[in-house]
Specification:
- With about 300 residues, the chain is α/β, with parallel strands linked by helices.
- It folds into two domains: about 130 residues, Rossmann fold, CATH 3.40.50; about 160 residues, Alpha-Beta Plaits (2-Layer Sandwich), CATH 3.30.70.
- Helix content is about 45%, strand content about 20%.
- The protein is built from ten helices and ten strands.
- It has a five-stranded parallel sheet, with helices on both faces.
- Helix 2 packs parallel to helix 3, helix 7 packs across helix 8 and helix 8 packs across helix 9.
- Bound molecules: magnesium ion.
- Magnesium ion binds next to loops.
Length: about 300
């Protein structure tokens, strides 16, 4: 870990006494990006607008004290994981229990000992970085670097509910590499891994809106989640994907369809309502994908509701 690496990390200093802020600023300014608030209300506003990596919070403040600020932050799911270090004076040591019970991670005492302040801050920043890294890694596919199935499930659920509220359709594309088992048998598993990475990168290029998500669903299966996208929009993306993978021109001598790597894509579009869930969307795309395989691969199949649902 290098010190210059820390310079992008943000710390919010909250204290009603400007002299305290000045001292902490002098102590930490070389290693972190510092922001300041002189009241609890201002601190809450700043944290929600631009969440910092750490909050250093004075306990005794007029109007809204540090405990109240801490309670408010811990009650907000968006910011509750940001570590809080309380600032207290030597006389208030019994208050440390209160703060720790509220979820603070540590204390620093006035008058400040710069070496101690730097160490305690560095410890908490390092712990947070480890947590963030773990959270990110556990949501990414190790081979391709795109979101994994766990991340997709979370995202599908959230976007489904969002489209339900906004009464917009949501689409999901399920793409599967054709004859991939025979590709691995012919070229070996290392080449198979390279193929997965190339296909994943080419699929990713076809998504243009920031809300769209591409995930590795399993083995050679990829899913694109397209919130607020109707059937026509989804088919357009699916056509681009089919073309993008073909354009890679990855040779596949064992394929029965083409001499290069191709994909089959199932497309499903649903209007989230009370009677359906996000699982129905995946199920529908999976059925369409199966249809595309049955019809000869290297093609798109569009899911349509069974006729009996209209009865
Ligand atoms: Mg104070």
């Amino acid at each position: 870990m290098t010190i210059c690496h820390d310079s992008q990390l943000m710390i919010l200093l909250v204290d009603d006494a400007p002299t305290n802020i000045q001292v902490l600023n002098e102590t930490l300014k070389d290693d972190y990006r510092l922001f300041f608030a002189t009241s609890g209300a201002e601190a809450l506003r700043m944290v929600t607008q631009a969440p910092p990596d750490l909050v250093i919070l004075d306990v005794i403040m007029p109007d809204m004290d540090g405990y109240e600020v801490c309670r408010a932050l811990k009650a907000n799911a968006q910011v509750q994981d940001i570590p809080i270090i309380f600032v207290t004076s030597m006389r208030q040591q019994e208050d440390e229990v209160v703060g720790l019970e509220l979820g603070a991670v540590d204390y620093i005492t006035k008058p400040f000992n710069p070496a101690v302040v730097r160490l305690r801050v560095r410890n908490q920043i390092e712990l947070k970085r480890q947590r963030d890294l773990l959270a990110r890694l556990s949501n990414l596919d190790g081979l391709t670097g795109i979101p994994n199935r766990r991340a997709l499930d979370t995202c599908t659920d959230r976007e489904w509910r969002r489209c339900q509220r906004s009464r917009k359709p949501i689409s999901l594309l399920m793409a599967d590499i054709d004859h991939f088992k025979s590709y691995n048998d012919t070229y070996g598993h290392l080449a198979g891994d390279d193929c997965l990475k190339a296909v994943s990168a080419s699929l990713l290029q076809t998504l243009e809106r920031p809300g769209d998500l591409l995930a590795r669903y399993g083995g050679e299966e990829f899913v694109a989640l397209l919130p607020e996208t109707d059937a026509a929009g989804a088919q357009l993306v699916a056509s681009k994907m089919l073309q993008a993978v073909a354009n890679l021109g990855v040779p596949h001598a064992g394929a029965l369809t083409e001499a290069h790597i191709t994909v089959s894509i199932g497309v499903a579009t649903l209007q989230p309502g009370r009677t359906t869930s996000s699982a129905n969307l995946l199920e529908a795309a999976d059925q369409a994908l199966y249809q595309a395989k049955v019809e000869g691969r290297n093609r798109i199949s569009i899911w349509s509701p069974p006729l009996d649902r209209h009865a």
